[in-house]
Amino acid sequence: xxxxxxxxxxxxHNGFADLGLRAELLATTASLGYEEPTPIQRETIPVLLTGxxxxxxxxxxxxxxxxxxxxxxxxxxPGAPAEPTALVVVPTRxxxxxxxxxxxxxxxxxxxxxxxxxxxxxxxxxxxxLDRGVxxxxxxxxxxxxxxxxxxxxxxxxxxxxxxxxxxxxxMGFTEDIETILxxxxxxxxxxxxxxxxxxxxxxxxxxxxxxxxxxxxxxGQTAAGKTLVRQTAYIVPRAHKASAMGRILDIEGATSAIxxxxxxxxxxxLTQTMNGRGYRAEALHGGMDQKQRDRVMxxxxxxxxxxxxxxxxxxxxxxxxxxxHVVNYDVPSASESxxxxxxxxxxxxxEGVAITLVEPRQRRLLGNIERLTKQKIDIAKVPSVAxxxxxxxxxxxxxxxxxxxxxxLDDYNPVLHGLAGEDSDxxxxxxxxxxYHEARGATTDEREIxxxxxxxxxxxxxxxxxxxxxxxxxKFTKPKDRxxxxxxxxxxxVYVGVGRKAGIRPGDLVGAIANETDLVxxxxxxxxxxxxxxxxxxxEAAVQTVVDALNATTIRGKKARVRPYVD
Length: 568
Ligand code: ADP
Ligand code: MG
Prior knowledge:
By secondary structure, the chain is an alpha/beta fold. The protein has four domains: about 1-215, P-loop containing nucleotide triphosphate hydrolases (Rossmann fold); about 230-385, Rossmann fold (3-Layer(aba) Sandwich), CATH 3.40.50; about 385-440, no CATH class; about 470-565, Alpha-Beta Plaits, CATH 3.30.70.330. The protein is built from 21 helices and 21 strands. The strands form four sheets. It has a seven-stranded parallel β-sheet with strand order 3-4-2-5-6-1-7, sandwiched between helices. Strands 10-11-9-12-13-8-14 form a seven-stranded parallel β-sheet, with helices on both faces. Strands 15-17-18-16-21 form a five-stranded antiparallel β-sheet, covered by helices on one side. The longest helix has 21 residues, at about 385-405. The chain is elongated, with a radius of gyration of 28 Å. It starts with about 20 loop residues before the first helix and ends with a strand.
């Protein structure tokens, strides 16, 4: 499927031994469980060991860190004086920490000292760390310059400068800083760039600061094993249905840890609200958040207390989350390169991953661009139907009950059974217990069918997308006037909200606002109907006044709306 098959070296034994690395590093990589070098490692490490300059290009998650780290560490003798001989420049604080941890780990056999320096951390601590002596400095550009100016980062012994995620640094406007840093390091240095993509701006840096660099490029989508382990699927979904489509797809996929990419901060915040409103544990991650908040949400995803991180590209770039199962492109990235970066978040180093892309009908063309860049086909699938979702929920419940049957503490629950003795048949007791589990899991009774646009010709859906949109359980009514009360589930009442489609209101906005301001959760909210200038939302009868008061006291999508119980 990809056109750049890795060269087969035909070696049966551990391939690291062939690269020319010192014994300590071979021992360390073996102890980390690295069995074979990844393609980028195999191609670049022997070259870097000769000391020449290099530009290395490979998709995210293909092991670029070790590709530059191992050769750098190879030069450090155990017990060597602790003065910086290598400087690694990275775009973000997270990467500084991540790369420095990796280099520390790889260099542990030689006692290598590594320090990350980045903005946002008190400079005092970094001054002390630098003062105590280090072999390798991993820095963000601004903070590196700061330390160079203070004299706390000495560059006269630097042998290697690595620019990691070079494309990203240039995108983030660090070009000048990088030039400053390169100009202050010894001219006989080795200059190494690693990047997932090589835009023209990198070429400019190359011409100015590298000497006859060797270029190594590994095709996208390859992993340590040289196989594509990321399953890539796209769904064609009208904009208004994207949030529910995503929730349903992730439900069916059984996603436990996902990163969802949005284009803007606002989109991140809105979608996070919507998904929480629908009962997902979702957290936002974007550049507008301070470091503490970002660390917190990353930790939550890693330890499983959140199941979904909704992020912008910049904020999530380069992060390596071991547990990640799914990457979702909430929009087709308009730059195909971002797609490569994003899906690099899963399927790392031999694990299997899934990349899901939601495509609005008018964005179909962009998919083709991505397929051309990655030289891989993206399958177009149908959005799962309500029946699919039900079937999946039943599967999950059956599996859970099976597992519980195998547990050895079943007898602990005997008192409950005794308490119910004789009240009904075993069968009905079992059914009732299953019902409770099913509901507690949040297996929603989601009744909406999401229109499938995967076969639409671009002309057709134009018409289809106009007119009132209907969402929510039991939303069978078609026009406001003939909306018979009977179609709204028992116990559900309607609330009138005086903003509608003209104000840009989408179902998610209403669900989000209500879930935010009241105790209700997403699955208790609906049906939702949005007309041009107003919307009608179903909520539990008992909560009508609470919802009305809460919505009157807040704004929806930044707009004040008149809200009252709905009367026909
Ligand atoms: P990149 O910088 O290309 O995005 P990383 O350097 O962050 O990728 O590596 C991704 C993951 O692969 C890390 O978890 C790393 O520990 C692992 N890894 C790197 N090299 C190997 C290897 N040779 N075998 C197995 N796992 C590896
Ligand atoms: Mg990297």
